[in-house]
């Protein structure tokens, strides 16, 4: 199974601690092993069949935001703990900037999440916000300014709960959006706008 970068950083300490604890206090050793294996599972990075056209979902999860702001459409996907947390480019493009903004760690599905820590990936046609949630403490972008990304290409991941928003290119209106709030989507495969 492919793992997102950084998975070992979070999984190795509890797994390493589990070995000696199994001999000293078995329940604690089993708990550490469970945490380590859960962490590996959480950071899974499965292959996807990327849609041939349209704007694809940037994350696995439920659509939590679909609104128009300043004449452009924003679609947000909330990732539950059981969702894959690897994020993908909704469209091809050239990365103009990758900006990290410190902030709060409120639940990513709430309105207060506008103040949360985030990484904004701006391309020549759209913006992608990787937003930390209540338990997320690390956003790991995997692109840099000047990189060219293809539709569905991996652009980063967020460790332990979050949301990803895409601000669609200006030519897309609400009538072009193919998903509704509450709908389950799959990164790279579900077309969110045509």
From TrEMBL:
Q: Which PROSITE patterns does its entry note? A: PROKAR_LIPOPROTEIN
Instruction: Tell me the classification of the organism that encodes this protein.
Output: Archaea, Methanobacteriati, Methanobacteriota, Stenosarchaea group, Halobacteria
Keyword Lipid metabolism among UniProt keywords: yes
Keyword Lipid biosynthesis tagged: yes
Could you identify this protein by its name?
Phosphatidylserine decarboxylase
Query: Which residues are in coiled coils?
Result: none
Instruction: Report the Pfam families cross-referenced here.
Output: PS_Dcarbxylase (PF02666)
Instruction: From the UniProt record, give one GO term of the biological process aspect.
Output: phospholipid biosynthetic process
């Amino acid at each position: 199974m492919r793992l997102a970068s950084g998975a070992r950083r979070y999984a190795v300490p509890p797994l390493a601690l589990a070995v000696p604890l199994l001999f000293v206090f078995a329940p604690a050793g089993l708990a550490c092993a469970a945490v380590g294996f859960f962490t590996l599972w959480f950071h899974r990075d499965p292959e996807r069949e990327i849609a041939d056209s349209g704007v694809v979902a940037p994350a696995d999860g439920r659509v939590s935001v679909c609104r128009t702001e300043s004449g452009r459409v924003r679609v947000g996907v909330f990732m539950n703990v059981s969702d894959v947390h690897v994020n993908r480019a909704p469209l091809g493009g050239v990365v103009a900037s990758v900006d990290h903004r410190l902030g709060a760690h409120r639940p990513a599905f709430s309105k207060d999440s506008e103040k949360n820590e985030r990484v904004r990936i701006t391309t020549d046609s759209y913006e992608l916000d990787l937003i930390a949630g209540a338990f997320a403490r690390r956003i790991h972008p995997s692109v840099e300014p000047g990189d060219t990304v293809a539709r569905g290409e991996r652009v980063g991941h967020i460790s332990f709960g979050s949301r990803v928003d895409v601000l669609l290119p200006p030519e897309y209106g609400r009538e072009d959006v193919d998903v509704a709030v509450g709908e389950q989507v799959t990164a790279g495969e579900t077309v969110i706008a045509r």
